[in-house]
Each structure stands twice: as C-alpha cells, then as structure tokens.
C-alpha cells in the first residue's frame, strides 16, 4: 500500500469511528449545535486528507513545460486536470472560449544616439542547474501582451515608476515626454498603468524594466544562488487596460464564444495606445547610463551602478514591436458536486492553470491545492458526506493575459451566477508564511473563523493566531496594535484586481475571498522562465506543507459554506468597515483641500523658483481654486442605517441561536439565505462606475491608475483624488443609495430570521 493509500485508510477509520469534539467547542456560526458537531467532524476528516507528496507530484507534472494560452501543453494540462477530476469521482467538463491573444513577431530595443551602439538582448538565458529553463523553443519571448504594434525612434526619458504623480514631478522639473520613449521601473502600480499614463502625456513608446532596488540583487542573492531576479531576468505580463474591463478585449460584457460579436482590434479600448516592451536591468543599464539632464530626485534612484538622470537626451532609442494578433482557445476546467438540499445555491472555488512560462509558483502552487481539495471532497463523498449546496471547482485558463477564462465564464453565465452563486473563493499563487485573506467584508468573520481552525504546519498555532501575532509585530502605531489585540476579528483588506475573483465580485456581485500563504519566501522570478519546479522546490514551500495548509483552508471554507444551515454572512464587521471608508473619504477630502491651499501659498512665495541646479529651474504649477466642502450627509446617513440594520441582524441571529440553535435548522430559513446571497448584489448597480460601466460594485474596484490595488468607494475616492468635485458630490449620492438598499436588505433578513420557527 503506498503512502497515499495509508493516509486514506487512516482517515476513513476515523470516519467510521467518529471524531471526538469537546463539549465546550464553539458552535460554528450559522449552524445549530447538532449540525455544528457533525460539520466539525467532517471538516477534521477533510483536513487530514491533503498530501504534500501529491501536491509535489501535481506541480512537477503541470509545470514540466511552458503552458501559456494557445500552447500545446496548455491544452494537455487542461485535459490532464479534467482526467484528475473524473478520477476523483467528480462530474467535470471543459468549457472553451475563443479570445484575442497576441504573441510577439518582432521586438527591438536599441540605443542609436547618445552613447555606444547598444542592442538589448531581450532574452533570458537558461541556467545549467535548472532543467526546464532551457526549453527555449516552447517559451514565450519576453513581451507585454496587448501592446499595440509600433516602430519609433525618439529621445528617452526616465519617469521613475511612471505613475501620475511622477509626471507631476516631471512637469515641475520642466521635463516633457511628448514625442519621447519613456523608461519606467516596475512596482508602485500595475504594469499596464505605465504605458497608459505615458500615452496620456504624449509619449510614443514605453519600456518597463525590473530595477534591482525592488527586484534583484539589492533584495538578496540572485537566481540560481538565491531567490531573486538575475540581471537578465524579465517580467512578462499583460498591459491591457484592465481597469476599464478585464477579459477578452474584443467581447466586453459578453462571453467570448465562437459566435460572439467582436470588436475590431483597432476599436478595442483596452489595447495600449503606444508600443511597450519589458526589459531586464542588464538591458536597462546602458540606456539609463546614456541619459543626461537633471539628476533624478532621491526617491527615483534605483539600485544600478549609474547616476539616474531624467533626460531627455542625448540618448535616443529605437523601439519596435510587432505581434501576431490571433484568436486562441482557452480551456476552463469545471467540476461539479451537486447539493443534496439546496442544489440551486452554488459555492465556487477557483484558481488558474495557465502561466507565462512554466509557472510553478504562479499559478501552479495554488492550482495543486485546489486539485487536492477536489480529491479530498471525492474521498469524503465515498465515505457518505453530502454537501447541502452545490460545489463548483474551477481551474481557469487565460488568467495571465487578462483574467480571460474566468471573465468570459462570468460574463457568459452572468444571469445564472447572479441567481445562484453564494460565494467565490479564489487563490492564485502560494508560498510559505502567513495566511493572507482579502475579500468581501460580509465574509470577514467567516474567514477569521476558518483561519482559527487551520493549523500552521511549522508553529502548530492556528494560522489565525500566527497572522495575528505577525500583525501585532508589524503594527506601525500603539493604537493599531491595541485594535489588533482587542478586535474579535482581524481586518481583511478589500479586493482590487489581478486575479480571477474580479469578474465574480465586481461584475456579477458575488461575495468573494482570495486566500494564500506568503511572507517568508521572497523572490524575483515572477513571470520569468525561472518560475519553475527547480526554483519552487529550492526557495519557496520546499516540502509543500503550506500547500497542504492552503488545501485545508480552501477546503474548509468551501465545505463550511456548502453545509451551513444559515449562510455565515455577518454584517457587524461590514458596518465597521464602511464606517472606516467614510472616515477615510472625509479625511482625504480635507487633506486635498489643505494640499491645494499649501501649494497655492508656495506658488505665491516663489518656492518653485528655488533650485540647486540653475541649469534646470523648477516650473511652478498653476494656482488652483480651493473647492467647497463636499456634502457627506447622504453617505453618513446611509452608513448609520447599515450599522443599525447590522445590529438588528445580530440580535435576530442571537435569538435564533439560542437553545442549541434549533431554529437555525428550520426550513423557513430559505428566504433568509436568499437575502444573504443577494447582499453582495445590492452593492452593485447596473450603471457601474463612471467611465467604466463594466465594474458594477460600488464599494470595491481596482484603481483607474493603480490597476491591481483596490480603491474603496471608488467613484467617490477617485473623484476626490482627481479633483472632480461635482462628480464626487454625485458619487456620494449614488454610493449612499446602494448602502441604503443594503441596509434595507439586512433589516429584511433580520425580520425574517426573527420570525423563523
């Protein structure tokens, strides 16, 4: 009998004998005392099943060859995953979509003036110790997907991270990028923001490089001696304007099926306006060394051994980008476990399986956990477990170029998901360290409870306890430490974008969580040929115990949602969070007004005329009118209504939970559960956000100029940041309306729960 069989035998001896549960063990939220005891027994059996050896084996197979969208191994992997799901006893199929996926045909970066002739390698070399790094015939070249074609020779300008505030600084320095090619370093925004902002300021091309200050030898030893990015390493990635909409650029809002109506490529708004390429810091160094002009501000200086000048000139660069603009298939692998009591209520779990190259860390480290969850569910089904709700397990294709597989699925099945989806639990990559949880704040208490029941494989503390201790140690103030110690639940960050939860949460209005371990395995192989099995097994979760912990956490979350008598949505933490967002917006409004006043004072006093370099005088910005105070009263009233309704729901829950929670097992809770499912939908509206209607959620969205990082109450927050005061006032009314609707739903759920027999 092999080890996997021994583990299964031990588990199911426990199944037959039952698992001891202490009498004083806390009843699970949303469960009667009796159903909680049963659920805890099944969950303990679930958490005993995942095997590090299986996780390692799955990863070795799935990352054996490059498997980007359109590659042969991408399809082979999808078929292999499908076979695994069926081997585990699950009903499974592949759902195909056909999407625009450009691949590079011509790439050129050369320094033609201002220094010695230099042609960038644009190539990552194989490493002898790393057996899959030499699969060069199958590797996608280093490029940025959805860059427009272009061929330009122009002066070079260094723009730091290439975010809006950097261009404000350039303007004060009297530097224009109009007609120039900009070079920006990665970090401080998602990569697609950099060519977007450059184009808005008149640039004709964009280079993005990995500076060793953030992503190389400054951080630690470089691969293969260490985990960090080597000098020739390059970060591939999409630069589609995903804050407008993710997914297939040609089919916004609808599934990219074979017969879908498609935009012309020239009309697709998410394709960049200027050509862009990523380069290594080895290729960037000669270009930066050729720049003169003003020395870059201190915060703009990276880790290369050159003086960082801004330019322009004398460096002149030739940039050429040309792609094959092909429609390629993506293969979503979907498995389904029918619910025994509420089959029309769906709990969805997902991760993606495609990668830019071999992708051991991103995404296979997360995908293998989902596979072990699937195997664990299959074993429990054989032992007699029957989930009350339907469980849908998804391994998406096409995430890397732009969340393609998940977005097309969520668009194609929009009506069904709005009608049936309870929640979506996502993961992406996984490492070692601390459990990170982000997501919908109606699930904040639930996610904390799950974390309390999963053990950290090294400390044997709960992963919740370990995260709490880490947060206390990292707190930046005594006040913050005090809150962490005293608050019942750890706060979870809101979700922006960058992974497959995006369409479920922000387009379809499905409550979502994103989970994964990280914090103790830093490295710099993201989206490179070195993200492979060799790197992962030398520098990350080398014995796969945190992969096992992720399978335990994900499996527990899905199982607990699927089996609950009353869905474990909770509104106290949600109300606390929206109160926090309101305080932040009011503080941001006042700070923006104060900053305008201070800037106007500096202009009057001639501060911007002073400079330590008379050859490059500073340019004073124009004075601005100080805006009137925003009227936050509608939002204040709506937040108060949410807080009051949350209190009513808590009171009704406590009453229903009395006497062993027998009322929680009542069939009359069906209407309450329906309202709870709808609670996230109420936070969306059909109009969506200003200038990007695809994003319908009014509390969470990726920032228009951050890309991945979240903006909370985004319509209001971004209007303030962009000093669109009329739009901010209008957005306050819209968000207040959404919150009033949410408060009414919570109150209705409380009333129905109180009336349940």
Describe, in short, the structure shown.
This protein is an alpha/beta fold. The chain folds into 3 domains: 3-98 and 335-563, Aminopeptidase (3-Layer(aba) Sandwich); 99-327, Glucose Oxidase, domain 1 (3-Layer(bba) Sandwich); 572-755, Transcription Elongation Factor S-II, Chain A.
What do these coordinates show?
Mean pLDDT is 94; it is low at 1-24. This protein has helices at 3-17, 33-48, 52-62, 72-87, 164-172, 193-200, 212-215, 281-289, 360-382, 399-402, 404-412, 414-420, 444-452, 463-474, 478-486, 501-507, 533-539, 545-563, 572-605, 633-656, 670-678, 714-721, 725-755; strands spanning 91-113, 118-119, 144-145, 150-158, 181-185, 205-209, 237-238, 276-279, 316-337, 342-352, 389-396, 421-426, 433-439, 512-519, 700-702, 710-712. The chain contains 23 helices and 16 strands. The chain folds into three domains: 3-98 and 335-563, Aminopeptidase (3-Layer(aba) Sandwich), CATH 3.40.630; 99-327, 3-Layer(bba) Sandwich (Glucose Oxidase, domain 1); 572-755, Transcription Elongation Factor S-II, Chain A, CATH 1.20.930.40. Strand 5, helix 6 (193-200) and strand 6 (205-209) form a beta-alpha-beta unit. With 757 residues, it is an alpha/beta fold. The strands form three sheets. Strands 1, 2, 4, 5, 6, 8, 9, 10, 11, 12, 13 and 14 form a twelve-stranded mixed sheet that branches.
């Amino acid at each position: 009998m092999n080890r996997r069989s021994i583990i299964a035998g031990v588990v199911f001896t426990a199944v037959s004998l039952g698992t001891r549960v202490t009498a004083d063990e806390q009843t699970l939220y949303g469960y009667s005392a009796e159903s909680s005891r049963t659920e805890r027994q099944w969950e303990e059996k679930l958490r005993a099943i995942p095997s590090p050896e299986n996780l390692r084996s799955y990863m070795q197979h799935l990352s054996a060859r490059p498997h980007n969208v359109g590659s042969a191994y991408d399809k082979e992997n999808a078929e292999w995953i499908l076979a695994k799901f069926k081997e585990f006893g699950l009903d499974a199929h592949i759902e195909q979509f056909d999407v625009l996926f450009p691949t590079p045909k011509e790439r050129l970066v050369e320094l033609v003036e201002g220094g010695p002739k230099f042609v960038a390698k644009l190539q990552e070399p194989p490493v002898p110790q790393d057996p899959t790094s030499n699969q060069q015939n199958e590797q996608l070249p280093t490029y940025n997907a959805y860059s427009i074609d272009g061929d330009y020779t122009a002066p070079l300008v260094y723009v730091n991270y290439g975010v809006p505030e950097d261009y404000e600084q350039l303007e004060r320095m009297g530097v224009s990028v109009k007609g120039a090619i900009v070079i920006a370093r990665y970090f401080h925004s998602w990569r697609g923001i950099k060519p977007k902002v450059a184009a808005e300021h008149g640039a004709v091309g964009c280079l993005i490089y990995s500076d060793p200050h953030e992503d190389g030898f400054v951080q630690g030893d470089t691969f293969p001696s260490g985990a960090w990015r080597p000098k020739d390493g390059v970060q591939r990635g999409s630069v589609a304007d995903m804050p407008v909409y993710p997914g297939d650029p040609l089919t916004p809002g609808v599934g990219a099926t074979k017969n879908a109506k498609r935009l012309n490529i020239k009309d697709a708004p998410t394709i960049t306006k200027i050509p862009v390429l990523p380069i290594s810091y080895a290729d960037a160094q000669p270009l930066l060394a050729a720049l003169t002009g003003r020395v870059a501000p201190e915060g703009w200086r990276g880790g290369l051994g050159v003086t960082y000048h801004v330019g322009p000139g004398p460096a002149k660069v030739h940039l050429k980008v040309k792609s094959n603009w092909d429609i390629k298939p993506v293969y979503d692998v979907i498995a389904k476990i029918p619910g025994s009591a509420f089959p029309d209520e769906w709990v969805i779990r997902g991760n993606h399986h495609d990668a830019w190259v071999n992708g051991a860390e991103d995404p296979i480290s997360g995908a293998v956990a989902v596979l072990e969850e699937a195997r664990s569910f299959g074993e429990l089904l054989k032992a007699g477990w029957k989930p009350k709700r339907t469980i849908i397990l998804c391994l998406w294709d096409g995430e890397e170029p732009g969340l393609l597989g998940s977005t097309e699925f969520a668009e194609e099945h929009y009506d069904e998901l709005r009608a049936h989806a309870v929640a979506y639990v996502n993961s992406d990559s996984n490492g070692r360290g601390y459990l990170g949880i982000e997501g919908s704040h109606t699930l904040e208490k639930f996610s904390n409870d799950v974390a309390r029941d999963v053990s950290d494989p090294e400390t044997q503390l709960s992963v919740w306890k370990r995260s709490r201790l880490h947060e206390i140690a990292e707190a930046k103030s005594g006040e913050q430490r005090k809150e962490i110690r005293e608050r019942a639940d750890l706060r979870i960050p809101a979700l922006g974008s960058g992974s497959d939860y995006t369409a479920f949460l922000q387009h379809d209005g499905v409550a979502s969580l994103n989970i994964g371990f990280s914090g103790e395995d830093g490295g710099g192989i993201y989206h490179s040929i070195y993200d492979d099995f060799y790197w992962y097994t030398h520098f990350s979760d080398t014995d796969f115990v945190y992969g096992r912990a992720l399978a335990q956490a994900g499996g527990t979350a899905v199982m607990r949602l699927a089996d609950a008598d009353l869905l474990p949505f909770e509104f106290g933490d949600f109300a606390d969070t929206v109160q926090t967002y309101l305080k932040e917006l009011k503080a941001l409004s006042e700070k923006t007004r104060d900053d305008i006043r201070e800037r106007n004072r500096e202009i009057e006093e001639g501060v911007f005329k002073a400079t330590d370099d008379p050859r490059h005088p500073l340019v004073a910005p124009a004075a601005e009118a100080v805006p009137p105070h925003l009227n936050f009263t509608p939002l204040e009233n709506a937040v108060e209504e949410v807080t009051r309704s949350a209190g009513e729901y808590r009171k009704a829950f406590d009453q229903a939970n009395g006497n062993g929670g027998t009322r929680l097992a009542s069939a009359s809770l069906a209407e309450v559960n329906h309202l709870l499912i709808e609670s996230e939908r109420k936070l969306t509206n059909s109009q969506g956000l200003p200038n990007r209607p695809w994003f319908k959620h009014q509390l969470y969205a990726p920032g228009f100029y951050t890309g991945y990082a979240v903006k909370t109450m985004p319509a209001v927050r971004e209007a303030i940041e962009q000093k669109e005061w009329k739009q901010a006032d209008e957005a306050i009314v819209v968000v207040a309306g959404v919150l009033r609707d949410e408060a009414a739903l919570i109150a209705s759920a409380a009333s129905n729960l109180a009336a349940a027999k």
